[in-house]
Amino acid sequence: xxxxxxxxxxxxxxxxxxxxxxxxxxxxxxxxxxxxxxxxxxxxxxxxxxxxxxxxxxxxxxxxxxxxxxxxxxxxxxxxxxxxxxxxxxxxxxxxxxxxxxxxxxxxxxxxxxxxxxxxxxxxxxxxxxxxxxxxxxxxxxxxxxxxxxxxxxxxxxxxxxxxxxxxxxxxxxxxxxxxxxxxxxxxxxxxxxxxxxxxxxxxxxxxxxxxxxxxxxxxxxxxxxxxxxxxxxxxxxxxxxxxxxxxx
Length: 249
Known about the structure:
Elements: H1 4-19, E1 25-29, E2 39-47, E3 51-57, H2 73-96, E4 100-108, E5 116-122, E6 125-133, H3 142-150, E7 174-177, H4 185-189, E8 207-211, E9 214-224, E10 227-235, H5 238-244
Antiparallel strand pairs: 1-5, 2-3, 2-4, 3-6, 5-6, 7-8, 8-9, 9-10
């Protein structure tokens, strides 16, 4: 079943292009902190699918007059985002067969965490839009766990020794992998500021959590108090995780 966030993204892209001046384009991007003056709105979703969905806007978007001349820009954005929230709930209910409605919609301040980030491109300018999705999603299926295990070494790990607990405080370096690409040496030498290197992964795909050179978990990038973080959505079994870092001990 598609999530509320997925329906919201589709509806927002359509309504923004129709309702805003200049037919701007909404594209997904990596999250980044917003400056002072950021504002936002939150929808409380009720029904079989429930939770809170918030949207925080780049304060510079208020100077772009996208919702119309002579209109209070913040109020205009509030009305447009309310319409997007209601339409996304209606789409989820109609297409997924799950009762879903917006029970409450309100202006918010002080949001710092994000599940997804978008750029609204309007002419030569672009504006950051952060969303935080806390709407209850279906439980992970067995297929997700099986897919992650397939990416890890197939060998069965050896049993844990009695003294293994002594290693539990050892600090290991972990990193996130957004994707990869093979480049010829000449292409690498030709790289300069402003060049873009496309990766082999869609921006909506989960990123890998790596220890050594092995995947131990996957998840989505979030923003936590101005820093990047990872919300884990898939994780290998403890024995698989131990096997993947065995070479580090």
